[in-house]
Structures are given as structure tokens and as C-alpha cells.
Design brief:
Structural class: mainly alpha
Number of helices: 5
Order of helices and strands: HHHHH
Largest sheet: none
Length: about 90
Amino acid sequence: YEGHFYLGNYYFLQKDYESAEVSFKKAQGINTEVIAYHERTASYINLAIVKLEQGKTKEAIALLEKAKRYGDPRFTKAIILMLAQIKHGKQ
């Protein structure tokens, strides 16, 4: 999961949004048979940023809402701020 997360970041910086999306989605997966570091909340946030870059605001909002609902509480304030900025057109 961690490898896909960082690979998604690489693709994002290269502006290869399709590959970034694939990697971030793989980083969100769950395999109960593998012990691995898993930053699922951040992968949802990063995928939301990819969607914003693609002009897919509704999808970005949905991903951030999902991250807020199911994610790490340490990210809640940042997610709320991001949602507010998107909804007020300050992307």
C-alpha cells in the first residue's frame, strides 16, 4: 500500500493523472492477510486532489467526505478546510 501511495505521488507530480489515480486506488485497498503500513486517509485526499486537477469537483468532494467519515481523525480539520475552499471556489 505504501509503495502505491508514493508511486501515486510520483505520477501526480509528472501530471500523469490516470496512473496516479490507479496507484492511489490500489493504496486504498485492504488485504487482511498482509501486515503493511497503510495511509488510507492520505490516499483519499491525494486522489481528491487528482480529481480537482482534472476538473472533477464532485468526485473530489465525495472522496474528501469519505476520507473524513472513515479516515484518521488527525486529518479531519484539514479535510474540512479543503472542502470549504472547494465549495467556495478557491481550489
